[in-house]
Amino acid sequence: MQPLMILGSRRELTIADLWRPDNNQTSAAILKKFNIKWKKEIERSKLYKTNPQILRSIIYAFHPSLLVGLAHYAINFTCSFLEPILLQSMLTFIATPTQSYIGYVIAVAIFLNAITSVITNVQLFIAGMSVGYQVRSSLCSAIFRKSLNLTNTSRQSTSTGQINNMLAADTNHIMWFMTMAYDPVGIPVKIVAALYLLWQQLGAACLGGLAVTIIAFPLQAFIGKQLMHGFDVKQARGDTRIEIVNESLTSIKLLKLYGWDLLFHQRVSQARQEELKSIKSIGIWKSFDTFVSTVTPLFVSLTSFAIFSAVNSGTGQVLDATRIFVSLSLFNILAQPIQSIGFLFSGGSAAYISLQRMRDFLLLEELDETNVEREISSDGNVVHVENGSFKWDSASSEKILENINFVIKKGSLAAVIGRVGTGKSSLISTLLGEMYKESGKVRVSGSIAYVSQQAWIENATVRDNILFGSEYDEAKFSAIIDACALRNDLKLLTAGDLTEIGEKGVNLSGGQKQRLALARAVYNDAEIYILDDALSAVDAHVDKHIFDNVLGPRGLLSNKTRIFVTHGVHHLPACDSILVVKDKTVVQQGSYDELMAIEGGTFKILIDEFAHDVSVETFSDSTDVDTNSLEKKLDIVDDAFLIATEKHQNVFAEDGKLMKKEDAGKGLAKTSVFIAYARAAGIIWIVISFSLLTVGQIATVGTGIWLDNWSSNAGDDSGHSNGYYLGIYGTLVVVASSLILLTNLTMYIKVGQNAAKVMHSSMLKGVLHAPMSFFDTNPLGRITNRFVGDIQVVDEQLVETYVIFLTYLASSISTIIIICSITPLFLTLILPIIGFYYYIQNYYLRTAQAIQRISRLTNSPVYALANTTFTGISTVRAFDKSLAYQEKNNILQDDMQTSFLSQMAANKWLQLRLEGLGAFITFGAALFAVVERNTISAGSVGLSLGYALQLTQYLYHTMRMFGNVQNSGVSLERIFEYFNLASEAAQHTTYSVPKDWPQEGKIVFKDLNMRYREETPLILNGISFNINGGEKVGIVGRTGAGKSSLSVALFRLVEAERGTIKVDGVDIAKIGLNLLRTRFTIIPQEPVLFGASVRDNIDPEHEHSDETIWRALDASYLKERFSGHEDGLEQKIKSGGDNMSVGERQLFCLARAILRNTKVLVLDEATAGIDLETDSLIQATIRNEFKDATVLTIAHRIQTILDSDKIMVLNAGTVEEMDSPANLLKNPDSAFSKLAVAAGVKETI
């Protein structure tokens, strides 16, 4: 450790400076040990029909390390009892004159005993923490592995919030409890041994102390039970808060666009308020726990001394110095196990609840690998489903698909079509093994590459997203970039394919994300390709390009088996086989011509009625794709806008990095951080707490001084009875006890509650009001870490740390004063030692703070990986990458364990040196007592030496807790950093608008300039146009033309640099953001749903009646979907809408828009994920429900905007052309006319 401390004193440390765990201590090795024992425990529980216990698995897996610690515990145990024995010898020596060398021998023995105690205590903690960190690592890895294998229903029963809480809080509770692993055995033995030695001093009187101890046990058991319940409730409420925070952060763009950020701020605050109630309850019970633990030894001594005095009042036996101070030393030893009982109940309660939560999670149902047979095909069919019936899991009563029969030949192109909610995506899930097979047979012969309906993108470079762990082949990579129409997109990025993509692809449009996900699938060279409506989010030209170059008969995958869900009927003639899904089964299968020949068939009706305006594609073997001309077309009309060029070019550095590097900070935590905490907590309450603590400490010290006075007058005719001394002593004990309780209650109830409330609220406000650029450049895991890990420090550790620090500081000061008043020579020793203490502490803190910062930085990636993987689990499993992601997690866990173990080792480095110096303090007190034995009384020596023995611990714990206070400052810094984030404009202003504004919806852009940051180019360059109230306008344009920026400017996600936007004559820059955003509505391309009821999803502010909500659901064709449920509008929607298809989610967003009924509506490809039939119905609904509203539509389907009043074509941030569709189509040279022809729209329209 010393080399690292030296390095840390010279420069700021990085994780590369810390040592890595040995091969047998890596996360992978530790998880393997745990898994073996956990599997045996599950088998045992099945055999004996009991619940499996994680603790038993932990003990069996890591017992060798526990046994090593047990040896240190035994030695340390022995040393603790040698203290009073040596103290008795010293007092006897002082009271009975004898040869001087005996006193010096005793002093040396005291010193050697103290040194041995220090060394074994350090080794004991290292052994316990070694087990603790192995337990945490194994449980974190087990939780991550489990999350990769959950069934759909199991995934819906948990959440990313709960998983984050288990990773951050629950595993910590268990880890710290392992440092107390020996206490259940050691506590009873230590109590018995202490009572035996007390019997030697006080005789039967010690039984009074035993009675007090016995009374304390049920009190502590009761308090422990209350703490257990409190921790259980707190963890559940914490899960709820974190889940709402996660949903708010994940859906932040929608919240801002809808003006719901204030509403969700209230929701999080309400959840936080409930959590704070639990924290307050825990604090109260902790205060009583501390009270019982602290005052029990005081009352044990009071009771024992009182009984001794009463029993021996006439026997001549008196409470002399030896008897009193040896007994006090034993009472202090007795206090340790009694106080440990409190910590054992407190820590044990939290650990028990955490173990139960993790056990329940680890026992959730996993996917059955036998759902899909992976045998080699012998009949030429690579996919064969026979008489299949499927459910989400084995416990579900509802069949999702039934009577499924179909085959797909090797190398064929198969399309899956059907209306929204008929089971197309579920059919795909059966092939991926994601659904429980109730009956039948599913055989898939070959490796799979999968593109989900909502593309899953990692926070990595474009290249890494495509490679997905495969080796880089430049020629292959380049060909796939061209085939997936990504070449032009990469040209716009500063670092090309090395440009970093944000979490969930925040800096890409839906089209880019789908193409990137498709490129990943193509690059990974599988035998079977499964695409779940992957082309719905791309433009017509891009759609054609991808089909021709990737999926079609002459595409890169022409020799592969391709299964794709589609709503694009123009591709169907090129398919070898078409599966028609209706009413939870496959009703038809055949080629395009075969199905069209079936009169009255579902397929023919769909094509005849809803695809009459689309020209289907035909292919000739002699026709080559004109790639060059196609690329030119893409330059003009690619509507899958790359937000990087519009929205995010401001954050790309030269190296292509998007995400900002997390600032680790440097040096010690600033004083201003602690002052800010004090202000948040309430300075007046801190002053009151410190005053109570000071007076309480004076009363506690007074008990020792009074005992010295009592012992000095023992047997003398001083005129005072034992009752007098006992009365004063008892008064001091009661005062000290009461003040201890009041101090703790004040700290927990006022200081801790105030700080926890203010800090979380201020951080939440700072985050939710931050501009979108903040969320684009900071990973969700990094932000979540502050709301989980750092807030946990504020909630659970800070107050306790401060109380302990101040208590030990006051004890140290008072002890030094007492010792120096008795033996003034002690000053010659204590002053230089305190100087050494200060030097070592500062030397330690430079390294410890750096390691603490590294530790915080290594935590965030663990949570980020868990969040990312949990949302993209289907893709990870389909590509058979589960093991690869477990390895990623193991590496991150090793980083986290490396920083944590370094932190603990630094702490023990400090303890060894400080307590070693403390041993010299004890030696010095003993030595000076021998030197001055003729001038001081035995009582004074007992008081001095007794306090000196405690001073070692006092000074060490003072310095250690000061270090912990400094380390907690790291969390405070990270929280305060989010207090002062750059903020959006004011939510509310004094500028008044008509109550029913906007009445018409007339939109006027005048000379509007907008850029995303000062140093970036204009993205809207003097754009001007007028849209009359009630007009329907379709918006198209090339990549980077400014289409998305129009909505960004309209909703003021970015403020304009120059120019104005007026809606019904009102300059929107003058009104509050909340008013503006609640008066407009947007239906985003990617639908967002929350883990709440139908009512809370569609009407979170509860402004509308049931009848109005049902009408909106009916208009969006969802009434039937929800009306049959017994809970009606109160039925739960899973987080992210996991229990709904993507098409249904988009319809739900439409229902929101209908319910809001604003005069301005923006549709960003709102029907991309639904079939043509439903699309046709939706367009009719929009025309009917929004006939008087101004509607701006960005659409990839040209048919969607052909009935618009006007078409706006944007180019380079200005309006290139704007006219009616008819007029634009008349001009064959117009950009829109070229788009319509390329999209296959018939000229007869």
TrEMBL record:
Keywords: ATP-binding, Membrane, Nucleotide-binding, Repeat, Translocase, Transmembrane, Transmembrane helix, Transport. It is found in: Vacuole membrane. One of its GO terms (cellular component) is fungal-type vacuole membrane. It is a multi-pass membrane protein. Signal peptide: none annotated. SUPFAM superfamilies: ABC transporter transmembrane region, P-loop containing nucleoside triphosphate hydrolases. Residues 383-608, 1003-1237 form the ABC transporter domain. One of its GO terms (molecular function) is ATP binding. The chain crosses the membrane at residues 54-75, 101-126, 174-196, 202-223, 290-311, 331-355, 683-707, 727-749, 816-840, 912-930, 936-956. Its main location: membrane. Residues 79-350, 687-967 form the ABC transmembrane type-1 domain. Belongs to the ABC transporter superfamily. ABCC family. Conjugate transporter (TC 3.A.1.208) subfamily. This is P-loop containing nucleoside triphosphate hydrolase protein. The lineage of its organism: Eukaryota, Fungi, Fungi incertae sedis, Chytridiomycota, Chytridiomycota incertae sedis.
